[in-house]
User: Fold these one by one.
Assistant:
Number 1:
Amino acid sequence: MDAQNRLTAALWLVLILLSLSLLINYIDRSSLSLAGPLIQKEFGLSASQLGVLFSAFSWTYASFLILAGWLVDRYNVNLILAAGFFIWSAATVLTGFSNGFLTFLILRLLLGIGESVAYPAYSRILVRHFPEYRRGLANSIISIGMPGGLAVGTFVGAILMGHFGWRPFFVVLGFVTMLWLIPWFLWMPRGQGLLAQASHRLVPSIWKILQQRSAWGSFGGLFTLNFTLYFMFNWLPTFLVQERKFAMTKVATVGFVYLIAAVMSPITGWLSDVWIRSGATPTLVRKTFMTGGQMLCGLSLAACVIAGPDLTFVLLLSAGVGFGLSNSQTWAITQTLAGPDASGKWTGVQNFFGNWAGILGPVITGFVIDVTGGFFWAFAITAMVGVMGALCWIFVVGRLEQVEWGGPLPQKTLVV
């Protein structure tokens, strides 16, 4: 095998490890939501209190994202990702020993700190090692981890919690997932990748990023996408148990929603790259997949609240298809706009604004459920937010090409 083929194989292995880390990330962050009905009953929590616990993760997650983006652009991105991974796995283990609302709150805050490094690190690694026409597939392979984690967590978690309770699940999950660090230290990417071909360039400040209209479009678009996502994995289990009268073991079927999103993500990521290589512009391709998927997801969720149990399941699958379409494009758009010198910072800032949805969404939803006594308006609000997000991607985000930050661009790219 020649040097180029060895490099290509190594980079695909890196993608698999990053996807696996994101899968673990979403199992860890969504497990409390899955255990929500059990924890609510055991500790006598109201829907509003449960909403606060769901949102607590995002308090620190959002707060540390800008710092995480700065760190991965400045220091060794591989080691920063490993440190964050260890912190969030430890928080998962300790959750199994929680004894009340305050303990859950503190550990959710710690989980948010650890997981804040993930997306800035992924973006920095991809933009350093993959050219534009490969990033749709590369991002979508990593993004499999999001719905994949929700699917695995829902299938396995619901069954195990139904049989053994929620405490053993958290303890075993945290210890087992720490094993990911072993292959990461063995096979993490080394060298500068595409940056090795570039001359010294001006590294833009966060203030410079905030001056870009497209940046604000991407912030708003991610906020709305996250609002939908947090609603799905925070409240769907409770909705199915309380309003559709599903048993906890039957809640595992919602994992098919995330599974179909995991399947659609790499397919649409690959199709988007093929479309671009055939001559279409990244603007047309990525915006088409992004907005179409977000609209489909939001409208499918809206219809769930008035459907019967069987039709609800079909509509949830449709929402999964829509989420898979949009999930494959989010960070490819950001990486194209930011370029290699600003990808970590832009991703961090975008995720900061986007994850206010995780802070506000669960609390708003919990309050609406308490006030109205049902889920109708919670679903309706989520659908409206999704439609607004599609408009952000279309009209606020501009042409998808790298922002001219003021320095020379790379003269060559590395084909992988």
Note: The first helix runs from residue 3 to 34.
Number 2:
Amino acid sequence: MGFDWHPVTGELWFTDNGRDLWGDDKPPEELNRAPRPGMHFGFPYRYGSDLVDPDYPTQLPEDTFTPPALELPAHNAALGMRFYTGDQFPQDYRNQLFIASHGSWNRKEPDGYSVFLVTLEDNKAVAYREFASGWLTEDQRFWGRPVDVEQGNDGALLISDDFAGAIYRISYQRR
């Protein structure tokens, strides 16, 4: 869905949405890393690290498939992503990854509608957390759907929203 090149290694990283109509909690969305050409990330046979799709049987051996760099919540629609290379935010954010979570459409309880921050250590995704939220209200209604993350020339984050027709600017101010 979204992709960016790691600012230090030059490797391609990208988000991948799982299939629909397989329950609320599977399959996971994926963050993938492609350090070389020719890798197979599973579609349509596998999702996440080891979830096999019974609707698409294959004779390909298990070691044919590259597991994701990180599994993300199912049906969050992880879309646009960007490595942070600016200097407005604290140094801990540098070369970390922001992902726009467009939000679910077919879960019993909606989920997503936020921006994730993925923490990388030694070029490996080790964790994610919600960085920006509020588009999903307490009564489970949404008023916005993040689509992409860009970095402004000043180092602020720009988040596009195709539901509200808006671009949000998130900046950091040192105190």
Note: Residues 3-170 form a domain with the Neuraminidase fold (CATH 2.120.10.30).
Number 3:
Amino acid sequence: MALTGIQIFKFLPRTNCGECGVPTCLAFAMNLAAGKAELSKCPYVSEEAKQKLGAESAPPIRLVEIGTGENAVSVGGETVLFRHEKTFFHKTGLAVAFDDDLPDGEVAAKLERFAGLVYPRVGLRLGADLIAVRARSGDPGRFAAVVGRVVAASRASLILMADKAELLRAGLAKCRDRRPLLHAATAANADDVIALAKEAGVPLAVRGEGLEAVAALADKAVAAGLKDVVLDPAPKRLGECLVQQTAIRRFALWQKNRSYGFPTLLVAADLAGGDVAREVLVAATGIAKYAGIVVLSDVRGELLFPLLLQRLNIYTDPQRPMKTDPGIYEINKPTAESPVLITSNFSLTYFLVSGEIEASRVPSWLLVLDTDGLSVLTGWAAGKFVGDTVGPFVKKVGIADRLTRKRLVLPGAVAVISGDVEEELGSQWEVLIGPREASNIPPYLRGL
């Protein structure tokens, strides 16, 4: 970025209105300098500032939003090649393909699986983000009918996939207000599909055979007035996919080549040949390097779950530990006589402890203390898992109201705080020392 945040700040209105999404104009200027915001987000910027800042303040990779409301999917907007340089912000959107030549019963079953295949993890609900309706039948009426069924059954963001403008137009008529992504403008249909996307005000994917072809189509779309573009270089092999995705990111970030400054889309099913294991491999490659959207063939746990976990790890800030929401967790249907265990909100610690409690089959309560994502021992060293924090938390969370027998089990690694906890809680509580290792929790609980 040629201009610094302070230089950009001089061109802003400096009203600190907050309408751009950040509280001050200086913070907005810093985001512009880092390529994390667009000048158009400021409603009061002058025409002179627009002319002077222009491309200087635009992110190297455009942030494209597909869909509307809480189900909108934002892709692109990244500013680094490697996660350790800063972090990745906008996770790869996972789409599931719905072919319009499927029987109605299979469409309904697939929609039900799409809605139901959601995994709770670390205070999140993980699942697929988009539905890609593919025009396999070649019939505009059938394509529109399937799009209509999807719209009626799901609030997920949509991708309309067809090779002819009349098919896309038929599908778009059923979901224009949902702001779908049109896929795709090609060398054969570019004029008609670009015109359709511009008319509808929706994002457009361009699909070309290789990097030069897809860049030429992107330039054509931009010249026609479109801003929200997604690139699909249509790889034929996995190795080619890796090279293309990496090259596009490098051209955008290192060379500031605006022809490649857009998020990308990868149809993993096209490279898999019906092999689920290979499709997972292709999709995992796309998530790591650097697809904005990956289209999968089906809603299947063995296909989706490993990709969701991979994406969660990659799009988590490496400088910030993953945290679980603090509070009371019920495991194995606890009663008023059940013991109460306590741990930190470092997600790995939570999952280890809760998993071992569940494996013990002993009804138990688990309290999760907010330690800013630190483990138990690290939290103790930082003064966040000590008697002065554990005792007040146990009182505040209200677990005592659910108990007739009050037993609190501390992690063995912090047995030293037991006296302070007893003093904080009072004589009505029995403070016990649990095992040092989570793996010893099941026999410990069975012995209580």
Note: The first strand starts at residue 63 and ends at 66.
